[in-house]
Amino acid sequence: METVVMKLYITGQTGRSTQAVKNLKSIVSVIEPEMVTVDILDTLEEPEKAEQDKVLATPTLIAISGDREKRIIGNLSNHQQVLTFLGFSEKGAKIDIGKTEDTSNRDGEGV
Amino acid sequence: MKRDMNELFQGIEKLETGIEGFDLISYGGIPKNRTTLVAGTAGSAKTMFAVQFLAAGILNYNQPGVFITFEEPPGDIRKNMSTLGWDIEQWEKENKWIFVDASPSIGEEATVIGKYDLGALLARIENAVRKTEAKRVAVDSLGSLFSMFREKTIIRNELFRIAIALKELEVTTIITSERKEEYGEIARFGVEEYVTDNVIILRNVLEAEKRRRTLEILKYRGANHQKGEFPFSIISTKGLVVIPLSAIELKQQSSDKRITAGNKEVDKMCGGGFFRDSIVLVSGATGTGKTLMTTEFINGGTVEQEKCMLLAFEESREQLFRNAQGWGVDFKKLEKEGRLLVHCEYPEIASLEDHLIMIKDLIHEFKPKRVALDSLSALERISTVKGFREFIISLTSFIKHEEIAGLFTSTTPTLTGGTSVTEGHISTLTDSIILLRYVELYGEMRRGLTILKMRGSAHDKNIREFTIDGEGMHIGKPFRNIGGILSGNPQHIAQEEADRLTSMFNE
Lengths: 111, 507
Fold this sequence. Notes:
The structure holds 2 protein chains of 2 kinds. Chain A is α+β, with helices and mostly antiparallel strands. Chain A has 3 helices and 4 strands, in the order E-H-E-H-E-E-H. Chain A has a 4-stranded mixed beta sheet. In chain A, strand 1, helix 1 (about 15-30) and strand 2 (about 35-40) form a beta-alpha-beta unit. By secondary structure, chain B is an alpha/beta fold. Chain B contains 18 helices and 25 strands. A 9-stranded mixed beta sheet of chain B has the order 5-4-7-8-3-9-10-11-12, sandwiched between helices. The interface of A and B includes residues 20 and 77 of A. Strand 4 (about 70-75) of chain A pairs parallel with strand 6 of chain B.
């Protein structure tokens, strides 16, 4: 199974940034470690990367799996929604990422 | 007057945009280190204005720029603007231009979970400005940014934050914004007035089946500017060119130096010739001798070693040259010697605005001391009433500003008497008016000439008969005992009646 590369863009060490980092750590903790890599990028320090990735809003989470890319804007406050949108079950098992639709407004496991 | 102008220029510091004509109507450009909103409907050339603002900065003032695009991808902008001769790619290589690409990505899966702001965008803008040491920033456009995010309140707050940051970076910014109607409200997103200090409106109005582009400076917080709508045109080699309706009257002093009309008798009637910086209108029916007066005017100039320019919109080169030859003036030779430039064009090939810009360019290049235009009536065909009036105002003020003597002709629709529509529009704008009329007398067509107006000078008030032969125009005696020539109904007046009328005014 392909690993998911996650890039979390934040801007400075603001309250919102810290929340997003904390939320992401907690979300990733349910996923098996070998299935995911996480990179945290501060746009103030690496604006060029933000430019390349065309990031406008922060926090923004970019999840890349193969040639597919998904983006979540916001501080990731709803963990379940994040997992579902990225194609993971609540317990972190990977569901086929290709078949998920925009389920951000739906509760539950998204199966 | 002079003192007033100086006061106008003081106050807020302005940044010359380099957009032709704009700096004139805005009294020196857009307020420096401030944000200016450029609002317009779809197709009103907002993006071009934004791009040109940066391009002109790089080309004319070596001021680098940052272009933030929410709409067209940079590739499209590079390609579209290359037709204007702007090599954005090269400027990017030279670190004079940076795109902050915020154009929408197609087919991207995205969602919003939790709170966010536009911190990344701000960081990217700040980075780009620092990297290029930009002096100018263009944002295109507000509407596209708003359509990207659902949370309008957040975007509003963030725009406010970005505007403050741009001010701190000491850059001069242009933000474009869409409007739905040409004459409707300006603020569509509810942030415009908070985010920007100044408002410029671009319009593209359909009027009498003709498109008319105008630019209006609506608000310049704390700075002066010319009011009202100014026509502008998009020229394939320059981009947007604004047409000022009046040049700033700094240099425009009235000259009392006389120049010859190229005909001693006409000079005498004018009280010693035309004034150096005056505009003369010659009006007459077809065949009354307008082209001859034009030719003599040009010839008179070249004899005095003045460079002359002839703008012809009615006759072809060959025709003009042949006519002149008939009166012993060799246009071909004069052109070869660089003393004359004849520019022939069909009025229909371009809009009036384009013609005006072309004429101005020719004058700038050739630097003539005299300009003759034959005829205004031909140009009137291709324009709206308003557009024509603006053309005349703009052209006359430009010619005067350059201290050039001008002679325009206008064709009256009826053979005897009558006034042309053209005259009605421009009689107040010209300094002198010469009327050429057919006079029907005893079953014979004769020609009459009178000087209707000669600003600032005494002149012959008679209606004089004139004849045309191989040498040119010969002015003869006044028509005596004839009334109603100008109205086209010449009538014989008995000598006693004429004497009685004269004596009435003598008392």
